[in-house]
Amino acid sequence: MLYEDLLNKKEVINDLLARYGVKFGIYKNNTFVEQLFPFDTIPRIIPKDEFDVLEAGLKQRVKALNLFIKDIYHEKQIVKDNIIPEDFIYSCSGYLPMCEEVMPSKGIYSHISGIDLVQGKNKEWYILEDNLRVPSGASYPMIARKLTRRGCPGIFHDNQIEDNRDYAKMLKATMDYSNTGGLNIILTPGRYNAAYFEHSYLAEQTGSRLATGNELVVENDYLYFIDYTGNKQKVGAVYRRISDEYLDPMTFNPESLIGIPHLYDVFRKGNVAILNAPGNGVADDKGIYYFVPKMIEYYLNEKAILQNAPTYLPFYQKDMDYVLENFDNLVLKDVAEAGGYGVVFGSKMTPDQKESFITLMKAEPRRFIAQEVIDFLDEDIVDNGIIVKRKADLRAFVLMAEEPMVWKSGLTRFTRDPNSFIVNSSQGGGFKDTWVLSR
Amino acid sequence: MKQLYFHYHMDIMFDDDVQNHHFTLKCIPLSDTNQKIENLKVDVYPNQYLSESNDSFHNACIMGHAPEAHQKFYFDVIGTAYTGRNEARIYEDVYKVGFYKYPTNITKPGHALQTFFASLQFGKRSTNFQKAMIIMEQLQKSYEYKKDVTNITTTAEQAMSLGCGVCQDYAHIFIALCKMAGIPARYVVGLLVGEGYSHAWVEIFEVDENCQDVGYWIGIDPTNNILVHEDHIKISNGRDYLDCIINQGAFLGGGTQHQTISVIVYEAYK
């Protein structure tokens, strides 16, 4: 039995993960709590031929998304040609007019994209959402793989599993490609951030400096890192793990204390690369998601290889009618929310809740999308020593240097609650490694 | 056409040392189809690290960083503006100004603005400019100029429910109402002939009558109930006040600040 060794090592590996500080911080009632991110040693296994299709589809999608963001902040051809109603672009909270006409280094906007997918019982993969702002999670399978290899070397010897330890190399290549000359920096808000472990681990693995905003300063249109001796070294690329609004108090939220004043002005002049570029939120809006297959056709003249989950926009009357008729079979999402919040199932609402939700949806149709509930292919997990089935999704990582590269692994997140579909770590889910087979 | 001399000065005294002071100034008028700016002299203190750029709204920005302790900050802008030039209109594509139709946090309507908007009678007036004139006319009747009731953070909705305010409030309310009517509108900061402070007004986007795909901006001053003319010198524009902040700063320390602003604009050869 392939798994036996893995099952036996589960506790040992989780203990090691805890010692390495592989934790996930969440704010509960305004206090910061770090919890372990439970690791399940049974991997998700994706055969080579299946992954080949995913890889082609993900490259295509990220290419189109990058072209879309560039178009929106410059030529706006997709608006002119009425492929996407301007309402969906300009009223989206991630669209930032202060990014208009600013061209990032090499014209790349989304260098690190975390694309969430689920597999249906029909074996078909569906895109659930695109995370192009500050997607996190690659470090968890990286370190889990390392520890699993140490604990169960035989398994990796006997099976044809693609090595996933090249993520750092890919990330470094991505930073180097956009770098305008100078250091690579990973900018963290600090240790009270949910993904601080990841920030420090990726810095260590890519040979970048881990820095907070107060260790970086803008002078004469360039960005400098101030090292521990007070020396200033020029910075060429900032992989920032801070959201747009806190990045620079001079251009975005003036209240921000974790940003770098005038960073965006340096970026505007082409004197530093910011990964991912500010303004990407316009493309990872749940309303814009609906239009991604259309974008692929528009920008690349290709049919989308990977399908969206069947999605309806109440913004269109036809879709509104469908949503009202099939309310109980749908999952409804508030486009402004992230992290698994603002997601409700029509079937789980009381008549009162349903009524108030429908009133709200009719008043603000632009705010919601509705999707068919996909019958997930469940994954095996170990719960108190017994193997049970749970819902799981896959976050695939696509890195953009000269060409898009798809990491041959990914973060598989599962829910520990048998009745839940929500797999987000902020909602207490766990994670698995993702094995892509090389044959 | 007028030849105007302008002198714009702002200084800030701090009670206590200020350190690591970063600032962005949007205080320089640029030449465009309505005004030509000449003999521009700009003086900024502290001036250790200064650089220039343009933001996404095409405003001229001076960026500075003063790491050393200081207790004084000022800028001084002097120049000549040839105004009311009315040169050939600059046309822009309609689809490129779309974002000026969508409300910001400051210009988002609430009950007061919605009620007021519902009372407007546009009748047969179909162009953006005609509708904007109706809005200005009605606003003049029901809104009152009054100092010290609002402040720089007051939203259009708050200013509307108070029933009175200053030029910034007039401009925000006017923008909010234009957007509700589907008219792209933007906030303008500038100077007006006379002495005192900087002024705020609005530009609306009018679609060309012969070609619906392009249009041009028209300046409207709802505070004074007039169209922008040769007494106005434009400095900057954006979606609302926040895009046009004249002096945006981030610094440590400083204690209490005392800000003095003086604006003098007068006509040559009068």
Question: Any overview of this molecule?
Answer:
The complex is a heterodimer of chains A (439) and B (270). With 439 residues, chain A is an alpha+beta fold. Chain A has helices spanning 3-8, 10-19, 48-73, 77-80, 86-90, 139-151, 153-158, 167-178, 196-206, 263-268, 286-289, 292-300, 317-325, 351-363; strands spanning 23-28, 31-36, 39-46, 112-119, 125-131, 183-187, 209-211, 216-219, 222-226, 232-240, 273-275, 307-308, 311-312, 330-334, 343-345, 368-372, 379-383, 386-390, 392-400, 404-406, 411-414, 430-436. In chain A, strands 3, 4, 5, 12, 19, 20, 21 and 22 form an 8-stranded mixed sheet that branches. In chain A, strands 6, 7, 8, 9, 10 and 11 form a 6-stranded mixed sheet that branches. In chain A, helix 3 packs across helix 12 (292-300). The model of chain A has no long low-confidence stretch (mean pLDDT 93). Chain B is of the alpha+beta class and 270 residues long. In chain B, 16% of the residues lie in helices and 45% in strands. Chain B contains 4 helices and 16 strands. In chain B, strands 1, 2, 3, 4, 5, 10, 15 and 16 form an 8-stranded antiparallel sheet that branches. In chain B, helix 3 links the parallel strand 7 and strand 8. The longest helix of chain B is centred in the middle third of the chain and has 15 residues, at 128-142. At the A-B interface, helix 5 and strand 8 of A face strand 3 and strand 4 of B.
